[in-house]
């Protein structure tokens, strides 16, 4: 935020659910610097180092994890803000509402903090298990950790500021308002078909009070418009239509990191070849009509597939830099408040090119049978463990969670949410060890730490 902006209009966004906190002696950090510190020093953030991004952990020692991905998103998010603060936009109204470095890094670092083991495959498996108990969705779980289940407050999770919470709120609608109808479940987990059980993008019903607190500073008309949903023909679930200004910057940084950096992993590991690039991706990039890519496509191709790290990095840097410096701000006049009215966007050619990169990775990397077999295995592990834990929680859950489960069952009959929290928090490694301990007779010991 710029120094010229009136400070009082930001105070409400620096509030925490718990109220004011006492500053320690000689601690002059801003509220958003405190937020960033809470994220970085949290166990939930550390666990991202052993959670799958695209390629399974331990298949190699090169590819990105959720942790390194989050760090890259934070760096790109910072780059986007720096670009938007440049002389080209110096007189724009949105300048007063640009997030500062600490705030955008907080939002970007925590955007995946609720994602479960085994990537989006794990997300779908947990949603399958929770369909009768409020569902599971990675972004909803991130909000739950930051606002209810983190380690800095008994009641308010990581107890970060209202604006940090608004920034990670990608889908400001509750589960019950967007969830569609699912088909009947099969008799065996082995018949689990992931495509049928993708979750709606939402906030859990249990966090409706948190959602209301985040949105309280907005006018009623803004809140109503912000929660607008629609349902496309052929879609199982309805979807929210809007997100906030900070969220749009984070979301764009996330897309750039996924579209460009994850492609680099696949090239290095030999999953994407020069022939695949020339046949399936380069024509789509040229069709996008992005002049900078058209003029440099041969350079990008040659350096990406040169087999030399410094040349490949130069091509990756070119792509990331071009997407960052193409960012523009659009305005939605149907909103009154600047944090809802402004949105970070790419021009159509750059957006089309980035979507082509993402679609290519989805088809030729994520949906490869070799990758999906590992995804399926991770899903099966989660399905079986959840079934065991929910059959006898007081016997099999860690003691502190068993107490929480009993309290939840007594209070609102949703102890399954506590079991789901536990499983979502697991790293890939922890989930594998617990599975072995529960189901493999020759593995596991009372003396083996988990």
Please give a structural write-up.
- The protein is an all-alpha fold and about 450 residues long.
- A hairpin with an 8-residue loop joins strand 1 and strand 2.
- It has helices spanning about 10, 30-40, 45, 65-85, 100-110, 120-130, 140-150, 160-170, 175-180, 210-215, 220-225, 245-270, 275-285, 290-305, 310-325, 340, 350-365, 370-390, 395, 400-410, 415-425, 430-440, and strands at about 230, 240, 330, 340-345.
- The chain is about 55% helix and about 5% strand.
- Helix 4 (about 65-85) runs antiparallel to helix 5 (about 100-110), helix 13 (about 275-285) runs antiparallel to helix 17 (about 350-365) and helix 18 crosses helix 21.
- The longest helix has 24 residues, at about 245-270.
- The chain has three domains: about 30-245, Hypothetical protein af1432 (Orthogonal Bundle); about 245-350, no CATH class; about 370-440, no CATH class.
- Strands 1-2 form a two-stranded antiparallel ribbon.
- It is globular, with a radius of gyration of 22 Å.
Quickly count the domains: 3
CATH homologous superfamily annotation of the largest domain: Hypothetical protein af1432
CATH architecture of the largest domain: Orthogonal Bundle
Q: Main sheet: which strands, in order across?
A: 1-2
Largest sheet features: 2 strands, antiparallel
How big a fraction of the residues is strand?
Answer: under 5%
State the distance separating the first and last CA atoms: 44 Å
CATH topology name of the largest domain, in short, is: Hypothetical protein af1432
Number of strands: 4
Poorly predicted regions are 1-6
The helix count comes to 22
Q: Whole-number average pLDDT?
A: 92
Shape: globular
CATH level 1 class label of the largest domain? Mainly Alpha
């Amino acid at each position: 935020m710029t120094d010229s902006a009136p400070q009082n209009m930001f105070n409400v966004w620096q509030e925490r659910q718990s109220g004011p906190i006492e500053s320690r002696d000689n601690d002059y950090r801003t509220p958003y610097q405190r937020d960033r510190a809470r994220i970085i020093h949290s166990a939930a953030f550390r666990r991202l180092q052993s959670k799958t991004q695209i390629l399974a952990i331990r298949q190699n020692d090169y590819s990105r994890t959720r942790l390194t991905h989050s760090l890259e998103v934070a760096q790109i998010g910072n780059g986007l803000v720096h670009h938007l603060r440049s002389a080209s936009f110096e007189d724009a109204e949105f300048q007063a509402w640009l997030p500062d470095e600490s705030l955008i890094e907080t939002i970007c670092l925590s955007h995946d903090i609720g994602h479960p083991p085994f990537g989006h495959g794990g997300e779908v498996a947990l949603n399958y298990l929770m369909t009768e108990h409020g569902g599971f969705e990675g972004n909803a779980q991130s909000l739950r950790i930051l606002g209810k289940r983190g380690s800095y407050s008994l009641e308010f999770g990581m107890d970060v500021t209202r604006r940090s919470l608004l920034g990670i709120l990608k889908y400001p609608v509750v589960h019950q308002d967007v969830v569609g109808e699912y088909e009947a479940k099969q008799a065996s987990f082995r018949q689990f078909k992931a495509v049928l059980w993708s979750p709606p993008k939402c906030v859990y019903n249990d966090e409706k009070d948190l959602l209301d607190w985040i949105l309280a500073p907005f006018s009623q008309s803004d809140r109503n418009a912000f929660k607008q949903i629609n349902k496309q023909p052929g879609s199982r679930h309805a979807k929210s239509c809007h997100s906030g200004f900070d969220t749009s910057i984070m979301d764009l940084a996330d897309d750039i990191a996924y579209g460009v950096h994850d492609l680099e992993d696949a090239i290095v590991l030999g999953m994407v070849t020069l022939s695949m690039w020339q046949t399936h991706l380069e024509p789509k990039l040229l069709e996008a009509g992005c002049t900078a890519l058209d003029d440099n496509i041969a350079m990008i191709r040659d350096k990406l597939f040169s087999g030399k790290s410094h040349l490949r990095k130069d091509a990756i840097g070119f792509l990331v830099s071009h997407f960052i410096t193409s960012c523009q701000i659009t305005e939605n006049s149907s909103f009154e408040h600047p944090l809802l009215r402004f949105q970070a966007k790419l021009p159509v050619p750059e957006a089309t090119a980035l979507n082509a990169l993402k679609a290519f990775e989805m088809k030729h990397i994520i949906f490869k049978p070799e990758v999906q077999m590992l995804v399926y295995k991770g899903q099966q592990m989660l399905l079986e463990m959840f079934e065991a834990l929910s059959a006898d929680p007081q016997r099999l859950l860690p003691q502190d969670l068993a107490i929480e489960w009993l309290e939840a069952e007594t209070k609102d009959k949703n102890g399954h949410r506590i079991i789901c929290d536990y499983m979502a928090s697991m790293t890939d490694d922890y989930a594998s060890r617990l599975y072995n301990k529960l189901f493999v007779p020759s593995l596991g010991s009372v003396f083996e730490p988990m």
